[in-house]
Write a structure and sequence with these properties.
With 327 residues, the protein is an alpha+beta fold. Helix content is 33%, strand content 24%. A hairpin with a 2-residue loop joins strand 10 and strand 11.
Length: 327
Amino acid sequence: MGLDLDLLMQQCAHTLERTDLARELGSDAERIEAKVRDNYVRGGRRAIVVTDRVSAFDVVIGTIPFKGQVLNQLAAFWFEQTKGVAPNHLLEVPDPSVSIVRECRVLPVEFVMRGYLTGSSPTSIWTAYERGERRYCGHRLPDGLSQHEPLAEPLLTPTTKAEKGAHDELTSRDELIARGVIQAELYDRAASLCNELFKVGTEFAASRGLILVDTKYELGIDAEGELCLIDEVHTPDSSRYWHHHSYAKSLAEGKNPQALDKEYVRRWLIEHGYRGEGAPPALPDEVRCEAARRYIETFEVVTGCGFAPSTEEPAARLRRNLAGFFS
C-alpha cells in the first residue's frame, strides 16, 4: 500500500497540468476549463478530465503527482456507494483520470456540509467563530466552543458558485431564496439530499477508521428533471478527513487532528504568508509528494484497495482512451 517516494518525485516532472483534446483530435466538442477539471461537452455527454492541478483559497497553485487519478477513481467509488441515496451523472470511467457523465443543469449553489468547528481558510466556520461571529450561513452558534470539536449537529452552509478566478461567497438559505438564486422547494429538496449523503458518508468513513469532517456537494438537474449528484463526491479535494484513532489525543494535546486531505497544502501556504491574494509561492517537490502521499492514503483507506497509478505519458493515454468520445 502507498507509493515509493522515488516514484512520486519522478512523477513531479510528468503531471497532467492542462489538456486541449478537442483541438488535438479535431472535434467540435466544447471545452470548458475549471480550476481542476478540463471539461468537454458533446452530444448530451461530458468528458471530465481530472488534471493534477491543485487549488487552495480558490487559486490554482501548482500540481500534485497522481492527484487527478486519485480524485477520479475515488469519486467513481463514492458514486457507486451512494447511488442508493442519490442518482448521479456517471456513465463510465474510460481512463484513470477521466469520467464520462450525463450532461446536467448545474444548480448555482455549492452545498457545504460541516460536522466540526474547524478550517483555516478565510471563509471557514472556525475562522469566523474565532473572530467572534456567532451566526454563520444562517445558523446560530453557541459561545464556548473549541477548535476542531464536533458541532451539535451537521450544518448545511451554502456558498455561491464563483466564476473561475473569483472567490465563492458564504450565504444562507434565506439569502439565496430572497435573491432568486434558487427556489425554496428545490433548495429544501437539495438540502435533504445533502444531509442524507453526509450521513451515509460519515457512517462509511467511520467503518474505515476515518472522520468525515466536512464536504461539499454539487447537484444538478438531469434531462428527466431529476435532482442528481454531479462533479465529485467525498474526495480529498471536496472533503476533510481525520484519523479517528488519534483525534482525541490530538485535541487533548492542543494539536491539529491527523488529516488526510489538502488541508496540509493550505497550512503550508499559510505558514509561508499566502491566503489567496497575489501570486502564490511555488510548491516544493517535497510538499507536492507529501500531498500526493496523503491523497493516495485517503484512496486506499477509504476503498480498502491499493492505488494502481498509470505512469504512461498522459497526453497519449488520454488521446487513445477518449478517441471514441470525440469521434
